[in-house]
C-alpha cells in the first residue's frame, strides 16, 4: 500500500494509537505516552494506555547540554545531534514497545516534539529584521526510519509562521481535552519553564489563553546540582530548610520579561545560573547560603507563576487550578503558589484523567491527531493561539 494511502486510512479510522513524545527543558529524559485517541476537535477522546519517562544516560544529557540554550556552540555537533537524537529517541520508543509487549505495527503514529536547543522569540532577541524563532532537533525522518512508524514532528514552526512564538502549544490539547462548561480552569504546567492555559467556563475557543510565566524548576535544578550534586531538590527538602532572601528575590523579579504583555515565552537562554549570579551581584547577596538560595529561587518561581495568573483572572469569578509537570511534586513550590491564590481550588491533572508527568507528551499526541484528522478548531484572533495544524509528516521508507 502506498504510504499516503496508509496515512489516509489512519486518518479515516474511528480511533488511532499514537505515541506522544516530549523531551523538555529539564533534560531528565524522554516522556513516552502511548495513547488511544478517537474523534477530533472538542469531540476528541483520549485514553493513556501506557506512560513512562526513559531517563537519559549522563553522557546523552551532557551531549545535549553542549548545544543547549547557548549562543555559541560547536556547529558540527549540533548537526550530528539532529540525526543522533532522532535515532536515539526512536530506539527508546522501540525499547518501550518491547517492554510493553506492543508490536510497532500496532502503532499508527508517533508525535515527536524533539529537543528544544534554542528558543528566541522576538521580544527576547530584539533584532528588528528577524522573526520569532525556535529550534527543535531530533529529526522526524530518523525517528520514522528507526521505528518503522509514521512520525509527525517539528510542531512549533507553523505556530511561528502564523504569528505565534512557537509556544506554549499545550493550550491546543488542554482546550480539546480538558475544557469544561461552566468551570473556569487554569492548567499550570511546571517543567523547567512554567506555563499555564486558561480555559473559560464559556468553553469559547476565542477566549482561551496561554503564556509562559518564567522559570519553573530550571534554576532550582541548576543550583541543586551546583551545591548539592543532586539533579533536583527532591520534595523541596533543601528549600524547606532555608530562608527567603528578600533583596535577592526583588532583584530576580526585576526583569523586562515579567513586565512584558501576555502572551510571552522564554527559556533557559534567559533564566539560567548566570541570571541568578547577576541578580546576586546587583542586590549584594553573593554570600547567600545554598539552602537560602534554594528557598529564594523556589519563592521566585512561585511568585512569578501566581502573579501571572492573577493578571488574567477576574476576582469575582471562581477558578480551579490543575497542576502538572515535575514541579507539581514539589510541595514547597505548591505551598507558595496556593498561598498566593487563596480563592483557587487546587488539584492535579490526574483528576482530569491524565497524570501530570504524562500531560505534555499526551498533548503532542493530540496535536498529531489534529494534524491527520483535519482538526480545524477556530481560535479566532486570540494572540498566541493561531488556528493552524502543526507538524511535519515523515514516512518510514
Ligand atoms: N519529587 C520532586 N520534588 C521536587 N521536584 C521534582 C520532583 N519530581 C520532579 N521534580 C522536578 O521536575 C523536573 C522535571 O519536570 P518536567 O519533566 O515536567 O520538565 P520538562 O518537561 O523537562 O520541562 P518543560 O516543561 O519546561 O519542557 C525535575 O528536573 C525536577 O526539578
Ligand atoms: C520552546 C519550548 O520548547 N518551550 C517549552 C518550554 O517548556 C515549558 C515551556 O517552555 C513551554 O512554552 C514549552 O513546552 C510546552 C510543552 C508547550 O509548548 O506547551
From TrEMBL:
<dbReference type="GO" id="GO:0009254">
    <property type="term" value="P:peptidoglycan turnover"/>
</dbReference>
<dbReference type="Pfam" id="PF03702">
    <property type="entry name" value="AnmK"/>
</dbReference>
<dbReference type="GO" id="GO:0006040">
    <property type="term" value="P:amino sugar metabolic process"/>
</dbReference>
<comment type="similarity">
    <text>Belongs to the anhydro-N-acetylmuramic acid kinase family.</text>
</comment>
<keyword id="KW-0547">Nucleotide-binding</keyword>
<keyword id="KW-0418">Kinase</keyword>
<comment type="pathway">
    <text>Amino-sugar metabolism; 1,6-anhydro-N-acetylmuramate degradation.</text>
</comment>
<dbReference type="GO" id="GO:0016773">
    <property type="term" value="F:phosphotransferase activity, alcohol group as acceptor"/>
</dbReference>
<dbReference type="GO" id="GO:0005524">
    <property type="term" value="F:ATP binding"/>
</dbReference>
<dbReference type="GO" id="GO:0097175">
    <property type="term" value="P:1,6-anhydro-N-acetyl-beta-muramic acid catabolic process"/>
</dbReference>
<keyword id="KW-0119">Carbohydrate metabolism</keyword>
<dbReference type="InterPro" id="IPR005338">
    <property type="entry name" value="Anhydro_N_Ac-Mur_kinase"/>
</dbReference>
<comment type="function">
    <text>Catalyzes the specific phosphorylation of 1,6-anhydro-N-acetylmuramic acid (anhMurNAc) with the simultaneous cleavage of the 1,6-anhydro ring, generating MurNAc-6-P. Is required for the utilization of anhMurNAc either imported from the medium or derived from its own cell wall murein, and thus plays a role in cell wall recycling.</text>
</comment>
<feature type="binding site">
    <location>
        <begin position="24"/>
        <end position="31"/>
    </location>
    <ligand>
        <name>ATP</name>
    </ligand>
</feature>
<comment type="pathway">
    <text>Cell wall biogenesis; peptidoglycan recycling.</text>
</comment>
<keyword id="KW-0808">Transferase</keyword>
<keyword id="KW-0067">ATP-binding</keyword>
<protein>
    <recommendedName>
        <fullName>Anhydro-N-acetylmuramic acid kinase</fullName>
        <ecNumber>2.7.1.170</ecNumber>
    </recommendedName>
</protein>
<dbReference type="GO" id="GO:0016301">
    <property type="term" value="F:kinase activity"/>
</dbReference>
<dbReference type="InterPro" id="IPR043129">
    <property type="entry name" value="ATPase_NBD"/>
</dbReference>
Amino acid at each position: 500500500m502506498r504510504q499516503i494511502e496508509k496515512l489516509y486510512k489512519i486518518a479515516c479510522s474511528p480511533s488511532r494509537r499514537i505515541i506522544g513524545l516530549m523531551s523538555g527543558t529539564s533534560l531528565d529524559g524522554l516522556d513516552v505516552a502511548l495513547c488511544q485517541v478517537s474523534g477530533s476537535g472538542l469531540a476528541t477522546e483520549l485514553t493513556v494506555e501506557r506512560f513512562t519517562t526513559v531517563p537519559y544516560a549522563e553522557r546523552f544529557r551532557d551531549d545535549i547540554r553542549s548545544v543547549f540554550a547557548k549562543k555559541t556552540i560547536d556547529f558540527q555537533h549540533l548537526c550530528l545531534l539532529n540525526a543522533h537524537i532522532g535515532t536515539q529517541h526512536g530506539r527508546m520508543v522501540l525499547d518501550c514497545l518491547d517492554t510493553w509487549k506492543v508490536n510497532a505495527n500496532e502503532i499508527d503514529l508517533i508525535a515527536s516534539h524533539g529537543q528544544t536547543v534554542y528558543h528566541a522569540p522576538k521580544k527576547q532577541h530584539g533584532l528588528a529584521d528577524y522573526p520569532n524563532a525556535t529550534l527543535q532537533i531530533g529529526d522526524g525522518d530518523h525517528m520514522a526510519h528507526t521505528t518503522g512508524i509514521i512520525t509527525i514532528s517539528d510542531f512549533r514552526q507553523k505556530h511561528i509562521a502564523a504569528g505565534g512564538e512557537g509556544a506554549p502549544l499545550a493550550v491546543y490539547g488542554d482546550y480539546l481535552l480538558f475544557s469544561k462548561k461552566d468551570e473556569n480552569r487554569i492548567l499550570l504546567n511546571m517543567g523547567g519553564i512554567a506555563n499555564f492555559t486558561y480555559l473559560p467556563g464559556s468553553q469559547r475557543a476565542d477566549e482561551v489563553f496561554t503564556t509562559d510565566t518564567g522559570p519553573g524548576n530550571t534554576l532550582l535544578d541548576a543550583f541543586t546540582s551546583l551545591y548539592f550534586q543532586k539533579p533536583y531538590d527532591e520534595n523541596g527538602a533543601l528549600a524547606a530548610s532555608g530562608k527567603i532572601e528578600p533583596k535577592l528575590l526583588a532583584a530576580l523579579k526585576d526583569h523586562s520579561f515579567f513586565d512584558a504583555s501576555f502572551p510571552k515565552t522564554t527559556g533557559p537562554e534567559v533564566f539560567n545560573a548566570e541570571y541568578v549570579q547577576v541578580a546576586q551581584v546587583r542586590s549584594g547577596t553573593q554570600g547567600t547560603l545554598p539552602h537560602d538560595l534554594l528557598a529564594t529561587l523556589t519563592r521566585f518561581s512561585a511568585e512569578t507563576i501566581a502573579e501571572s495568573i492573577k493578571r488574567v483572572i477576574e476576582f469575582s469569578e471562581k477558578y480551579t487550578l490543575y497542576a502538572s509537570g515535575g514541579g507539581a511534586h514539589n510541595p514547597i513550590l505548591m505551598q507558595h503558589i496556593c498561598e498566593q491564590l487563596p480563592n483557587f481550588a487546587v488539584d492535579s491533572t490526574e483528576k482530569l484523567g491524565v497524570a501530570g508527568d504524562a500531560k505534555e507528551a499526551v498533548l503532542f499526541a493530540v496535536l498529531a491527531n489534529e494534524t491527520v484528522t483535519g482538526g480545524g478548531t477556530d481560535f479566532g484572533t486570540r494572540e498566541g493561539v493561531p488556528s493552524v495544524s502543526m507538524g511535519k509528516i515523515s514516512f518510514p521508507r
